[in-house]
Protein 1
Amino acid sequence: MKSLGIKILKAAALFLIFLFSILMLKVISQYTSFDKNTGFLVFKQQVVNNPYWMFFFYIHIFSITLCLLAGLTQFSGRLLAESRNLHKNVGKIYVYNILIINVPACFVLGLFSNGGLIGITGFLIQDVLWAYFTIAAVISVKKGNISRHKMYMILSYAVTTTAITFRIIKNLLYNETRHDYELFYGLNVWAALLINLFIAYVMLRKKISVIGKN
């Protein structure tokens, strides 16, 4: 019964991540007009005329959903069992997306983050952890250490999904009449990261506990 409950919770979590990933496509679609006065860009008027910032902004938002969905498939036991090559190839898409596209892009975006010093440090630490966990996952699997590979993939994906957690917190708690936008934004960056890493920690503890009982 306990293992069944864990499987149900895992399936529900994966479904919610998939659902929010798809919903993010709706948010991202507003930027296809390349209008500098739409969505999040309304709050970034001080940098929208910087071509380098805009370049990294667009490649980040247009690639992050692929990163979310590609990473999501890596936790499918069926996919791994039935098609190791597909698992490996989708994993490469996830890794290349993060290390070649999003880590460099988010570093630049993080330097100009909302939320003042709190937001900037939060985003830069997220970026460093994202790169570290993802590289460690690749190194582990190349060395044949599958358990460490899985551990680092969980941690890497925990950072990937901070984009979703950040938006959930903002939509549930932010009130423009009661909260200072900059302070709320900066604290939200840290909250999303800490919540996701805590969830990853709980998942890893459960995995270790299950292995120890076998």
Protein 2
Amino acid sequence: MPALRLGTYLTSATEGALAETPYGDLAGYDLGDFLHRWPALHATALTLLGDQRVHPTARVHPTAIIGAEVILGPHTTVHEFTTVRGPSVLAAGAQVGFNCEVTHSYIGEHAVLGHRIGLNRSLVGTGAHLSSSVTIAAIHLSDDMRHPHREVILRGEDGLYRCATPRFGGLIGDHTQTGHNIALGPGVAIGRSCRIDSGVTLVARIVPAHHTLSAPHTAGTRLRAQRRCQDR
């Protein structure tokens, strides 16, 4: 089975106290190993941060909901009607826009989530920008979605990568940019500086750095002049 090192896709936390927690070593983990260790690593980070779990410079709109295990780094922003829950992290300078839902995810330094973004068990790299209505799902469709059992597997040029868990959304590389109305996962790994055009749906794939993903209908759109009605 091929390796999938997080450092190939994203940068560890480098700013503020978060850099001195396990998130400062994020790039050194293989994806499957990190997913297995994530709960314990996050618990260690919470202990090390103590009362700095929410940095004094973090800005949270009064209508936003922030869970008890969420870490907000320096100069982070959470906008109106957004929920951030579970063992999630917003690294320094990260912004989460209007009406988003972020569950058990890591948002890298200076990354931007636009509006109506839904993330579950995902990692987003430094400087990435998800525009609007982007969803990353973490479990496969099954008879009972409350108890997922199908392992998340990714397909790449070197073969299949087994995540050894039924719960994983996506790994979005540093500086990746997206359009709107995009559905990803469960199980995608998008390399650094990729572009995902509007309308893309992608599951169980590993995408190398510096690639563009386009939906077929985007390139197939045609323009045709309307026939004018003759004056009567």
Protein 3
Amino acid sequence: MAAGTERAAAEYEAEPARFARLRARHGDAVPGGAGVAGPVPARRLERLRTEERPTWARPLPGGRDGWSRVAREVAGSGPPA
């Protein structure tokens, strides 16, 4: 995720310069880019925050009951059931 965040930040920082080049070439018909510079990277960052990513986690033996037993033991909530 960190690499994706850095890439989104770099793209955000590059947008004003890109729009300035477009405006220099094509004139005032090209928008200033402020309306794009915020929402686009915000959507990219939101996708990075919410997208599914692979995990190295493995299920505990015993399923939900096994997980509950380990959680009780770790939390010190009494003897294992």
Protein 4
Amino acid sequence: MTMVQESIRVTAPLHDVYGRWTRFEEFPRFMDGVEEVRQLDDRLCHWRTRVAGVAREFDTEIVDQLPDERISWRTVGDGVKQKGVVSFQRLDDAHTRVSLAMEVEPQGMVEQAGYALGFVEERVRGDLQRFKQYVEESDGTDSGWRGRLRPVDSTGEAPPSAEPEPPERPGPYPGPLPDTPGEAPGAPHI
């Protein structure tokens, strides 16, 4: 898998920035190649994408969602393989840092060449820049979903635990993304 990490500073309060990101069905407005995102339930989204002429459909699962702090996800099913975490850090009353870390498994020689040439990093950078513009041009009155989703174990139940402590250091995700919830204690779970 290929790791991509990018951050951007958005001129908007944390609450507004986080709320805008949770409006998953709005992703086609700022994510290049995303044609549609349908939220199926609190955890699952169905995606339709077209990148370099290649159409794909896949589902993602929200693994962990802590309002105003982070959202982590992974693909489910066969086909597209990716996982990631987006985190939100209050810089002051009017500024928020958005940090995205994701791992993507390129499919086929064309995608592998694209990853090797840095096209994924450029695309993510562009998506974050368009998200910044999307948020900064909004009137700030719309808010997304603010519910808490905890990682679940193999039985489908959330493990009993206290709310996690704030991360010791802000910024992008500090290391490899875990494959299963609970794999890296104290770190965002994917």
